[in-house]
Amino acid sequence: MVYGPSMLPTLNLTGDVLLVEHLSPLLDKLGPGDVILVRSPENPRKTVTKRIIGMEGDTVTFLADPSRSDRYISLKVPKGHVWIQGDNIFASKDSRQLGPIPCGLILGKVLYRVWPPEGFGSL
Prior knowledge:
- By secondary structure, this protein is mostly beta strands.
- It has a single domain, classed as Umud Fragment, subunit A.
- The protein has 1 helix and 8 strands.
- The radius of gyration is 14 Å and the shape is globular.
- It is found in: Mitochondrion inner membrane.
- This is Signal peptidase I family protein.
């Protein structure tokens, strides 16, 4: 299944069951476009699902405020970090607010949405 940024929202806020593998973060097998589970930098008890936009060394350009399309910011992702964003930029707390995320907070890579089945729900 291919997920694209034009598919908003990719995942439902509640009720999705995801198949996640935990080896990719350990083997450095993640890249831009991958959907990952991340321990929240704000609340270590919370897990969030976001998409990798940039890896260490990449320069990312993003809208500082999605409600205004005239203010772009570019920055280089530091070593040992990734840049993550939610697919719904209007309702996502991600690297645009939190900054680059340490790779140590990545818990796994989402392989597949098990439930609801394809063609069912908001996808």
